[in-house]
Design goal:
This protein has 224 residues and is of the alpha/beta class. The chain is built from 7 helices and 10 strands. It has one domain (5-216): DHBP synthase (Alpha-Beta Complex), CATH 3.90.870. Strands 2-3-7-4-6-5-9-10 form an 8-stranded mixed sheet, sandwiched between helices. Strands 1-8 form a two-stranded parallel ribbon. The chain is globular and about 55 Å long.
């Protein structure tokens, strides 16, 4: 049996066409390869769930290429979510925010929240900027380790299931750090490529800046 075709990372036209046609593809992401489908294609998202049986701590995520796409998916985009993403996107950070039901089907099924990331790989962000946000899930070996080589992805899907593989080369490294922004202060749920101390520092610096602006704009700013 032939496996899915492999396309170059710098030639996104085929990948965009497959996604628009409601197909599932494999893409390089933070810490390994992922299956991806367009957020607005429910049948493709259901197929993705069936193909990518990951770990319990590997929820479906939504990948965005622009901040506006992330804000549109959230019913509440808190100031803290803004602070973190301002400093760390694009990069290996996933924020959990309340899902806005008008945005369509929930990526996680019945979950009232959505996990959103803007990953470091430029090619993956471009697929979202030029199309729609993508629902993704990490591809893993039976021992739970991530699949980081496109050749291994091709070997896994030798029968029909995914339309193509976007070849981004070998993608080693930790996955994204996951931060729950539905609570205040936000809580780190899983530490990945970004240390927890980076999250704490970003929030602390943002709070200090906010207090500084409040002092500068206070009623006594021109007091003699």
């Amino acid at each position: 049996m032939t496996g899915p075709r492999v396309v170059g990372i710098r030639r996104p036209d085929e990948a965009l066409a497959a996604l628009a046609d409601g197909q599932v593809i494999a893409v390089p992401g933070d810490g390994g390869y992922q299956l991806a489908a367009r957020h607005d294609r429910p049948d493709a998202c259901a197929q993705l769930r069936a193909l990518a049986s990951g770990r319990a701590d590997d929820p479906l995520q939504v990948v965005v290429g622009r901040r506006a796409q992330a804000v549109a998916l959230a019913s509440v985009w808190t100031e803290e979510a803004g602070l973190l993403t301002d400093r760390m996107w694009p990069g290996p950070l996933t924020v959990i925010v309340p899902f806005r039901h008008e945005a369509g089907d929930r990526p996680g099924g019945g979950d009232p929240v959505v996990h959103i990331t803007m990953p470091a790989p430029r090619a993956l962000r471009a697929l979202c900027r030029d199309g729609e946000p993508l629902v993704v899930r990490a591809l893993r070996r039976p021992d739970g380790s991530p699949i980081i080589d496109p050749a291994e992805v091709a070997a896994r899907f030798t029968s029909p299931g995914i339309a193509l593989i976007v070849n981004g080369g070998v993608c080693p490294g930790a996955g994204p750090t996951v931060v729950d922004c539905t609570a205040s202060p936000p809580a780190v749920c899983r530490v990945g490529a970004l240390p927890e101390s980076y999250v704490d520092a970003a929030l602390m610096m943002g709070n200090r800046r906010r207090k500084w602006f409040r002092r500068r704009s206070g009623p006594d700013i021109h007091a003699r």
